[in-house]
Design brief:
The chain has 13 helices and 18 strands.
Length: about 375
């Protein structure tokens, strides 16, 4: 079987690429290891930025539908001290450029915009090999194969396509997150709900944080960040949810109970999320017939840009291919020339933000930097 554009991975990057190609009349097939769109939870809230993620949705012809997914009020943000004191509180006045949506709903919007059969579910990649002259063969775990003249790795951190281009392997960043959920929080967990506020809440201390987003239905989705090596987390039995939550909460001894309740009162077992990153300057020499988008190309520690950059990559690659009909290599080269410096800049800025969030003088160093940037912005406006 041969197809013109083969995309590995039905995340936001791969689906945006498929949609933009469809808008330009270019057929593509997306292969996804998951057996269905609902095979697993799709994560929490995403703030979609007006300078990259929203531009991708415009290129996909879906900006109006996107606006219908936006949750009002969720751009509100507050920072708390460890005793629960509010240090910063900004309401969502509707004028911000980063409206929040549920990741799963955004993914479904992209899926619904594609022709039936575009996504092939339950196709886990086993191996990929070059056949020469820009052609590649993808072998799936079920024994099926596909040969393609254009292969795009949109398959995330542990991409099976990346080794065709690069020897880089993601490395642990020295920090992990533990994920918890409180459901129907306004009724069942009122103190935590009041503390979390209407949008995003951050309680910071050097090397650690409790970060919460308010999702639909009063759900509080929390990421507890700890700067520890992986063997520290390995010593915790996460199959015993209660004991694991109590052990994580011990790292926040003395913090306000309404904050630690976001850990100990979780309605789900705490889920460990180790954080990995590729080198900030990750790039490769042009290899005919293959490229990468999203985390496969530029995985970094969470910094608010990952999903936006992934969709932007997909849209930019789709438009570059459409702008070079009959010359795939020119399209791939144009995409990569713009993507490499863009992703490197985002990674460096993300490292700076994370240093402010988790540094020795947080949260006060963060506010000092934020205040300086606000003054600079006002002076230039």
């Amino acid at each position: 079987m041969t197809t013109d554009v083969t995309i590995i991975g039905a995340g936001l990057a791969g689906l945006t690429l498929a949609r933009v190609l469809h808008v330009h009349g270019i057929p593509a097939t997306v292969y996804e290891a998951e057996v269905s769109p609902t095979a697993r939870a799709q994560g929490g809230m995403l703030d979609i930025h007006d300078y990259n993620g929203q531009l991708a949705l415009r290129a996909a012809g879906l900006i109006d539908e996107f606006h219908g997914l936006v949750l009002p009020g969720r751009q509100a943000i507050r920072f708390l001290d460890r005793d629960g004191t509010v240090l910063f509180d900004k309401a969502d006045d509707g004028t911000g450029g980063r409206p929040e949506v549920q990741r799963g709903e955004l993914r479904q919007l992209l899926l619904d915009s594609l022709p039936a059969g575009t996504v092939r579910w339950g196709r886990k990649v086993g191996a990929v090999r070059s056949l020469g002259e820009g052609r590649h063969e993808v072998a799936f775990a079920d024994g099926a194969t596909v040969v393609t003249s254009l292969l795009v790795g949109a398959d995330g951190a542990w991409s099976r396509v990346r080794p065709l281009l690069s020897d880089a392997v993601p490395e642990y960043v020295g920090r992990s997150c533990v994920e918890t959920y409180l459901y129907d929080s306004d009724t069942r967990h009122p103190a935590a709900a009041k503390t979390a506020g209407g949008g995003s809440m951050f309680a910071l201390a050097p090397g650690k944080a409790i970060q919460t987003h308010r999702e639909k239905g009063g759900t509080l989705h929390t990421y507890v960040a700890l700067t520890e090596e992986q063997d520290w987390f390995d010593a915790i039995d996460f199959t015993d949810g209660t004991t694991a939550a109590e052990r994580i909460a011990e790292e926040f001894a003395g913090w306000a109970p309404e904050l630690t309740a976001l850990i100990t009162d979780s309605d789900t077992a705490p889920l460990l999320r180790p954080l990995y990153a590729l080198p900030a300057e990750h790039r490769w020499d042009r290899v005919p017939g293959v490229t990468l988008i999203g985390d496969a190309a530029h995985l970094s520690a969470p910094n608010g840009e990952g999903a936006n950059l992934a969709m932007y990559d997909g849209a930019e690659l789709g438009e570059a291919l459409a702008a070079h009909p009959g010359d795939t290599e020119a399209g791939l080269a144009a995409y990569e020339r713009a993507m490499f410096p863009r992703s490197a800049e985002a990674a460096v800025e993300g490292d700076r933000v994370n240093a402010l969030l988790f540094g020795d003088d947080t949260p006060h160093g963060l506010f000092a930097a934020f205040g300086a940037e606000e003054q600079t912005s006002r002076a230039g406006s």
